[in-house]
């Protein structure tokens, strides 16, 4: 091919970047870059105040380019951007997998898509098509539909159908499957020990199901899979992107990276180095800005891509191919968006919690202890309980502002409810040890009251499992609400599993505890 000029290269480089930005209105630098070829923008929780504000923001961005790809990471459930400040009104994938009603999953995804569409979003980095085969996985967990491949396949397909029928493009992630990992890729590089036959049997089928359901975007995983490539993480690996995803599985759509500044790849190669290697390896678009959203980062990446073409480390033909796929996807997603009339940007929340609350209620599971407690357990609750919530540090995929738990929903039904939230640092750092904290903050206020203990992903947090066991040993009549991925051991006189820690899951649990449902 003929040598490309610097302006041509810069424009192509802009085309393959999907940057985030800071603020609730479009900054001038972003508008300028859209004029210079930037084809995609990503929204994060920091860009969102309310649905009407987002609709105005996306309209202003599209004034620069009507076909601009506006992406968001809205899995719903624990990973929500549009409801990060208020708590999700729809449960996440694990709850939907627990119900195992594909029509319900499709309805929930359609509800999410309807709201995103009305807000001007055209691409959603969801669903997670990962099979959560490792119950101690620190980054997937409730984001997966479950631990069985067949279950994940049918719900991945249903979620994609529902979302795209509402006019928003779906994205299957994290290829080739992030479910069997024990390291959070935000911080380090996970390794997958399974051989190629096992991966093909367990992890790849949901991505095939996604393609059959019409997905046009796949997001790569930042993890090392020696069965395919013992040197490069999947996001940077031609063997995984070109050979496996494109040639073997036949995917012809857009391949986008997970956040390129995540430690799994940037820790070794730097953000610019990882970007160039990802494009050279077969990726078409680079997502950046979850943590690094400054104008200078986008400018540096544009410069690094241009320099890489000049020095030969990124073939010009590969950059041209990647940019062409971005533009092709932009045309397709714009047509998809225009094919569906816009609705209310408040979505299902405009009429209450709607289908989300229906799904959350159906996902609650109740287990009663076998032992005879002499009728001491109050279930449903008779009076106002004391609630103890054990709070973990969550993955960076989850917005730390997002409300969760059962105390507030219970208080709405039982105004005299008291509560305390206890973090690991409070237990390990207490002068008298964990026992004093539990006796003082958890048990003493519960004298004469029913005790409700709420945990979140307890199986992944030994301190939480121990604290829960200590509380139940002291109060065998305790009612336990397990939010997140359920553990094998069900402690408490009555044990509720919600399969997620969303606001709507807390409401559903409170209804069950009080006998409202």
List keywords for this structure.
globular; three-stranded parallel β-sheet; 14 strands; 517 residues; 18 helices; alpha/beta; six-stranded mixed β-sheet
Overall form: globular
Spatial gap, N to C terminus: 67 Å
Strand order across the largest sheet: 9-14-13-12-10-11
Overall pLDDT level: 92
Assembly state of the chains shown: single chain
Task: Evaluate the radius of gyration.
Answer: 24 Å
Structural class based on helices, strands and sheet pairing: alpha/beta
Tell me the total number of β-strands: 14
Poorly predicted sequence stretches spanning 5 or more consecutive residues: none
Q: Percentage of helical residues?
A: 40-55%
- What profile does the largest beta sheet have? 6 strands, mixed
Percent strand equals: 5-15%
Q: What is the tally of helical segments?
A: 18
Any overview of this molecule?
With 517 residues, the chain is α/β, with parallel strands linked by helices. Helix content is 41%, strand content 11%. It is built from 18 helices and 14 strands. The strands form 4 sheets. A 6-stranded mixed β-sheet has the order 9-14-13-12-10-11, with helices on both faces. Helix 1 crosses helix 12 (316-338), helix 4 packs across helix 13 and helix 5 (102-119) packs parallel to helix 6 (149-165). It is globular. The mean pLDDT is 92.
Compose a concise summary of this entry.
By secondary structure, the chain is of the alpha/beta class. It is 41% helix and 11% strand. The strands form 4 sheets. A 6-stranded mixed sheet has the order 9-14-13-12-10-11, with helices on both faces. A 3-stranded parallel sheet has the order 2-3-4. A 3-stranded parallel sheet has the order 5-6-7.
């Amino acid at each position: 091919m003929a040598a490309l000029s610097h302006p041509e290269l810069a424009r192509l480089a802009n085309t393959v970047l999907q940057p985030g930005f800071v603020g609730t209105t479009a900054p001038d630098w972003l508008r300028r870059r859209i004029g210079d070829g930037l084809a995609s923008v990503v929204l994060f929780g920091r860009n969102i105040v309310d649905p009407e504000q987002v609709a105005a923001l996306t309209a202003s961005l599209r004034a620069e380019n009507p076909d601009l790809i506006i992406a968001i990471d809205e899995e719903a459930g624990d990973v929500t951007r549009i409801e990060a400040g208020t708590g999700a009104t729809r449960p996440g994938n694990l709850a939907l997998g627990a119900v195992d009603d594909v029509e319900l999953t499709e309805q929930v995804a359609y509800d999410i898509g309807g709201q995103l569409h009305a807000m001007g979003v055209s691409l959603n980095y969801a669903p997670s098509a990962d099979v959560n085969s490792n119950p101690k996985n620190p980054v997937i967990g409730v984001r997966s539909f479950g631990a069985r491949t067949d279950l994940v396949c049918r719900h991945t397909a249903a979620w994609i159908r529902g979302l795209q029928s509402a006019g928003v493009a779906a994205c299957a992630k994290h290829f080739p499957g992030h479910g069997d990992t024990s390291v959070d890729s935000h911080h380090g590089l996970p390794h997958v020990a399974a051989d190629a036959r096992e991966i093909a049997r367990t992890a790849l089928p949901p991505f095939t199901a996604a393609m059959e359901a019409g997905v046009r975007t796949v997001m790569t995983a930042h993890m090392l899979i020696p069965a395919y490539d013992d040197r490069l993480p999947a996001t940077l690996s031609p063997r995984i992107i070109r050979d496996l995803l494109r040639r073997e599985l036949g995917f012809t759509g857009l391949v986008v990276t997970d956040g390129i500044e995540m430690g799994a790849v940037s820790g070794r190669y730097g953000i610019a180095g990882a970007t160039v290697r990802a494009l050279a390896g077969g990726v078409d678009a680079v997502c950046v800005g979850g943590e690094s959203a400054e104008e200078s980062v986008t400018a540096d990446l544009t410069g690094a891509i241009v320099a890489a073409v000049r020095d030969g480390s990124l073939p010009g033909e590969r950059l041209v191919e990647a940019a062409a796929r971005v533009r092709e996807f932009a045309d397709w997603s714009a047509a998809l968006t225009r094919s569906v009339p816009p609705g209310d940007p408040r979505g299902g929340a405009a009429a209450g919690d709607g289908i989300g609350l229906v799904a959350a209620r159906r996902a609650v599971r109740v287990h009663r202890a076998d032992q005879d407690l002499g009728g001491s357990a109050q279930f449903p609750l008779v009076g106002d309980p004391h609630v103890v919530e054990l709070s973990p540090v969550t993955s960076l995929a989850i917005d730390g502002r997002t409300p969760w738990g059962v105390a507030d929903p219970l208080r709405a039904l039982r105004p005299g409810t008291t509560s305390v939230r206890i973090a690991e640092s409070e237990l390990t750092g207490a002068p008298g040890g964990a026992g004093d904290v539990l006796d003082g903050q958890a048990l003493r206020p519960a004298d004469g009251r029913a005790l409700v203990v709420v945990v979140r992903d307890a199986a992944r947090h030994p301190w939480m499992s121990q604290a829960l066991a200590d509380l139940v040993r002291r109060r065998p009549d305790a009612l336990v609400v397990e939010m997140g991925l359920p553990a094998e051991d069900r402690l408490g006189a009555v044990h509720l599993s919600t399969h997620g820690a969303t606001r709507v899951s807390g409401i559903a649990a409170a209804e069950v505890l009080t006998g409202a449902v």
